[in-house]
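Before relying on records like the one below, remember that each one covers exactly one chain. Contacts with other chains, cofactors or solvent are not represented anywhere in the record.
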Amino acid sequence: MAETALASERPRFEHQGIAFGCDYNPEQWDPAVWREDVRLMQQAGVDLVAVNIFGWAALQAADGSFDFTALDEVIELLHNAGIRVNLGTGTSSPPPWLTTRHPEVLPVVEDGTTRFPGGRQAWCPSSPVFRRYAVDLAEAVAQRYGRHPAIALWHVSNELGCHNALCHCEESTRAFRRWLRARHGSIDELNRAWGTSFWSQRYSDWDEILTPKLTLSSRNPGQLLDFHRFSSDELLAHYRAEAAAIRRHSALPITTNFMVTAHIRDLDYWAWAPEMDVIANDHYLDHRLGEPRAELAFAADLTRGLAGGDPWLLMEHSTGAVNWQPVNLAKEPGQLLRNSLTHVARGADAVCFFQWRASLQGSEKFHSALLPHAGTDSDLWREVLELGRIVGALDEVAGARVQADVALLFSWEAWWASDAENRPTHALEYLDQVHALYGALHDLGVTVDVVRPGADLTGYRLVVTPGLYLVSDADAAALDEAVAAGAHALVTFYSGIVDEQDRVRPGGYPGAWRELLGIRVQEFAPVLPGTRIALESGAGATVWAERLEATEAEVVDRFADGPAARRPAVTRRAGGGSAGDAWYLATLLDRAALRDLVRRVVTAAGVRREPGAGAEVEIIRRTDGETVWRFIVNHSAEAIDVDAHGTELVTGSTVEGLLAVPAGAVRVIREERAA
């Protein structure tokens, strides 16, 4: 594995203030349109443009020759207009001539069938043929533009693994075997890790091992877990290969756009983050979720966690509707500003969009853009102009970090393992617990850092651990140490159950944290969908119960009915040799009841809550250590008043006393001394 450069050694993304930008696909337009586009970009305040994201077919012909004429012209137009370039390698989707010449690069899905060209990402991450062509293109682009003064950032591929993360072709099978050898060392160790004594699955030779294609029954969970790890690593190796080609010709920072969102789960971004010179994310509101606005906040906080608390780049989001959901909702007036500045409040130093000009053809022709089909005589364009003005007014915030007292542990590996084919209930998924606990904190106006298991938890007053089914002993110990040092902990059901091999810890649940929590769960007792259970406090719950005994913990609440009637439902181990308290929740409480419990835990931990913040009003602070910028995002239909002293940047006014924040508006206050 290539060594990862230390953070202090990586090239930094340097930009004057908060970047305001977009993807631009000039290959879709006549060159006469390019000049008009650049003029309108300047009018809107756009100062960072991603180009050559899907440029392969336009750059390289079937005979292997390159033609950079058009890209040269586009880059010069942007440069002469003072617009910096986020230059893509162009490798995200192969041109038809490549897949025709080399059909072996096409991906194979879990039912053993091949997926063909006509969409995007029609390539296998393990294919040496595809990688050779992709690296050659990346090198050609980097060699031509590596010293061009317009280039500010390199953009490897695009949304790696969005469609093709899990490939089951013969090349992937061979690569999977090599990866398993490196991870486990011997076939005996692999058999132990996967528990192959079950169902006569024991392997005697590496060549017997396949990728986990569909079977007649459920598949081996250890094999599935390792295949997810392998697949994430294969795509990361592809990123590294393209990045290495760029670095031979340029010293500028390199990144790729992550997809930290509720519907993409195949890449372990904790493993990817150290390889990025700057963290970048694509995020789109998902209206298939119950609380898309809270999920936006969660995704932004998780992206900041991947950046180690440093600022990050919002590489893509939308001005309005997307094109890939069952119902693609347009944004309400003012929502574009609120969504964009929520990302900035939570650490983004760039606000960028897919895309600049709405396409007239292709799969994304109904995806919104900065410049809509309706043109400049449109409400959306006027909102874009206002957003560009406001982003420019916030330039001084760039580089500041977010203040948070609470950490929430999140793991892609736990996500993969928890949502297994066979589990106690399919009525609950990992993200259900994560979003519920984050949502309760969000409703209470608590700012959260989302961090990986095993992270340094020094300085946090509260650590929340929702449904962390899989955790290693070492990572589990980090929570023990934090509580011993004075942090409070809230752990929820189905946490600490298995180790990193998906092996159950015997002796009762939640195995990794029985001692910390002072409890022992004898048996899970989930309930049928639609069934409601009650706690003695009157709180309502669904989905899950446990037959739990408090060994050293205080019983805070009990199940009043259901399969665990009279058993503890909420416990608290106060002290217990540690400076902090350790709380445990054994069910999925209704939203109001969960908020009440979390409020109690937050208060006990001494967590600072922003006055006036809640489900409809987000208040987040960024600071550079001397100055604090307080963001107030009012999602409600009513004006609110907040106590404020300083300069309000959106309107440019001085505030001494109460600041009125209109319904649906955003205000940003510069406070001169850090709080």
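The chain has a mean pLDDT of 96.
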